[in-house]
Amino acid sequence: MSVRVAIHHHTRYDYDRVVFLSPHLIRLRPVAHSKAIIESYTLTIQPANHVIHWQQDPFGNFIARVDFWEPMSMMSIDVDITARLEPVNPFDFFLDTYAQSFPFTYDAQLRKGLLPYMDVGEPGTQFSQWLQSIDRSTQGTIDFLIKLNQKVVQDIAYTTRMEPGVQTPDETLELAIGSCRDSGWLLVQALRHVGLAARFVSGYLAQVITAETKQNDPTKEHSLALHAWAEVFIPGAGWIGLDPTSGMLATEGHIPLACTPDPDDAAPVTGTTDVNETTFSYENTLEVL
């Protein structure tokens, strides 16, 4: 059964002095291939001393470029989305014959277009050892993807990490813990090292609690969070979302905002200010309509 939801995402930056802001890039608009059906979208920025120009980056993501013409002591960003979440079968796709078994080699023309998503960093000791433990024997491609996704879940504990940036695969493996973006980047790099095109995804995770679940556990609530995962390109199916935090394939509740070869290009907000002490706060809400 489909569910209509209202999504509200509020972010606020309070500065301890009046500052000038550089142009900011905001990546908080769902991408065209989102499984959620977006009925309405608004982006509101305060104060009103700015102009917004909508753009698309080289990877097809929507970006709001915000130029400010006056200094300010605070900035807030509000996103409001009305969406319809239609239940989807994440396995509802076909694979091209040559891609049904792993390993396989991309068609030459397709590979040219996927090159940005196949770039691998130089693996450190921890990552190199971990890569050697991956079963690369001939097997069904989907079976391989599921096992690799679950391997990340088993090896990396989840934590909420407010520090900016993404850990390297070596750092994540050495700590054996990371945020969703750390696990997502580890999975992206692992997929690339075994010859598969993969990209980093930043987005919303909308979780709707059913009446039955609520009845069994009254403490359960609808939730909305910024989240990160990976997508892998398999001929015939296209981009397949893999969530290494849960070990599941992405479904209608995964709402991508930016899909890029590198995590730096998927950050929800980028920009600079004059030197100051900043207080950051945010709120995410999900309401079933």
From TrEMBL:
One MF annotation (Gene Ontology) recorded for this entry: peptidase activity
Gene Ontology BP terms: proteolysis
Keywords associated with the record: Hydrolase, Protease
Gene3D superfamilies: 3.10.620.30
SUPFAM superfamilies xref list: Cysteine proteinases
Tree of life domain: Bacteria
Keyword match Hydrolase: yes
Sequence ranges assigned to domain Transglutaminase-like in this UniProt record: 172-246
PANTHER family: BLR5614 PROTEIN-RELATED, SLL1233 PROTEIN
Protein name: Transglutaminase-like enzyme, putative cysteine protease
